[in-house]
Amino acid sequence: MSQADTDQALFAAAEAVRARAYAPYSNFQVGAAILADDGNIYAGCNVENAAYPVGNCAEPSAIAAMLAGGGKRIKRIYVTGPGAMPVTPCGGCRQRIREFADLDVEIVSHGVDGQPLVQTLGQLLPHSFGPEFLNK
Ligand code: THU
């Protein structure tokens, strides 16, 4: 599959799951789609809660889907949201991605009405702490 085809498939998967996001409080629906080391695409959406702090972002939902489906490493990840501003992962999600991705993995942030922004994990989370610090 070409890079363009992969990106099209990741965008489509993120948008399909974003439509199912549970975000009645923020009304800000987010989708995330991961190309994993097993070649499959795994997607997840944000899941909010009436007790606001226990809601979760789209990225950990996609990571959970990846692990449940047998994928182990993130090779590329798309995050899509409403509006024109690229939806870049929050700080906590950058660290969650860090657990399963190399620093040169590209994160594509895409507000559906705008242009995609492509950044590496190393750019988004410089000087980061990761599993290798614990010899894992
Ligand atoms: N959100 C995500 O799902 N991922 C991000 O990277 C940024 C924010 C969600 C959390 C919350 O449900 C809504 O967007 C508004 O912050």
UniProtKB/TrEMBL annotation:
E.C. number(s) listed in UniProt: 3.5.4.5
Cofactor(s) the record lists: Zn(2+)
Superkingdom per UniProt: Bacteria
The reaction(s) this protein catalyses: 2'-deoxycytidine + H2O + H(+) = 2'-deoxyuridine + NH4(+); cytidine + H2O + H(+) = uridine + NH4(+)
Keywords, alphabetical: Hydrolase, Metal-binding, Zinc
CDD domains noted in UniProt: cytidine_deaminase
GO MF annotation terms: cytidine deaminase activity
Domain CMP/dCMP-type deaminase: 5-132
Keyword Metal-binding among record annotations: yes
PROSITE patterns: CYT_DCMP_DEAMINASES_1 (PS00903), CYT_DCMP_DEAMINASES_2 (PS51747)
Family: Belongs to the cytidine and deoxycytidylate deaminase family.
Function: This enzyme scavenges exogenous and endogenous cytidine and 2'-deoxycytidine for UMP synthesis.
Protein name: Cytidine deaminase
Originating organism: Devosia rhizoryzae
